[in-house]
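Lay summary. Proteins are chains of building blocks that fold into shapes, and those shapes determine what they do. In this project we predict the shape from the chain. Here is one chain we studied, written as its sequence of building blocks.
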Amino acid sequence: WGANATTRMAPGNLDPTTLLVIGDTRETVPHFVEEQTCPIGFAAVDVDLYSSTTSVLELFRGPGRRMLRRTYVYFDDVADPQASFLHRFAGELLAIDEFNASTNDVKIDVWRGLRSGRIFPDSEWIEKMYIAHDLTAISAARPERAPLRDFRLMR
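And here is the predicted shape, written in a compact code that computers can read:
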């Protein structure tokens, strides 16, 4: 989403499986949710404003949501070592907090443990990675295979 999409992101330059939606999130997100046929596995959110972020988070709300049990989300405006003005009381962070407070079905949280084992653990993007956990789907999931057994205990 965005009114100023760059030439590099023009539809002809994207992978055929990528969908670029341009426009006001208040108008485009509801239409996208209505037309969406496959689950969201990743979302990159770079909309800069609280109001736009609240619109985008509607992707993860409601019984008709189509998302993986754990959907990875990149929020561009939640961390910046040069920006002392970022806090939980405005912008994307406030929108995330309000979303989490308003629903029990999906919770969005920092992707914990992502930094561990990275070749470049100080990369700025790591602090911007979150996971939207569909708690309803996770609770309803049933293992597709028998539980693993500890071979040392088998006879």
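What the prediction tells us: The first strand starts at residue 40 and ends at 45.
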